[in-house]
Design brief:
mainly alpha
Length: 54
């Protein structure tokens, strides 16, 4: 809500958000590599570790 309040054209911002809404929890900048979502997954034990053993 705060971002809409600070936008130059809040009505336009809301309209675009509704039209183009996201199907994921991540933002369009990071996508599936969102550090906040990855940390949350690790803390909740949902992350799979697939790192090569060297």
């Amino acid at each position: 809500e705060r971002q809409f309040a600070l936008a130059l054209y809040p009505e336009e911002a809301r309209r675009l958000k509704e039209e183009r809404g996201s199907k994921t929890k991540a933002c369009s900048m990071c996508g599936p590599f969102c550090p906040m979502n990855l940390v949350e997954a690790v803390l909740k034990g949902r992350a799979r570790m697939e790192l090569p053993v060297t």
